[in-house]
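Supplementary Text 2. Reproducibility record for the structural model of the 132-residue chain.

All settings were left at their defaults, and a single model was retained for analysis rather than an ensemble. We include the record here because the model underlies the residue-level annotations in Supplementary Table 4.
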Amino acid sequence: MPTTGERFERAVSIMAKLRGPGGCPWDREQTFDSIKPYTLEETYEVLEAIDNRDWEELKGELGDLLLQVLFYSQMAQEDGKFAVDDVLDRLSNKLVHRHPHVFGDVTAETSADVLRNWEALKAEEKRKRLEA
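Retained model, structure tokens:
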């Protein structure tokens, strides 16, 4: 049975093959702008599956949404901007940073405390981005 990491690597390599030489002509001609409508469409389909409590459909729709992330990441890698590893690192770092009550020494007894901390950290990150 393949691990989660192996499954993820397989999906990443499939996307690279689709965009690479000898890959799919349609996939190869897509741009960040051309696939934006599909990202929105897939998001709505995820929400619809949740509303319908259709868990089998949700599995497929979440896969379609993940495809969008892989597509954007592959195009960015081709352009020398970033790779899917950078996306994963950014996500992991953000989750750890924004959950100091789990990964640090901050106390949050309620979900309201968590949201207050989250918003404060988000505002601090934004301020630092604007100063840079």
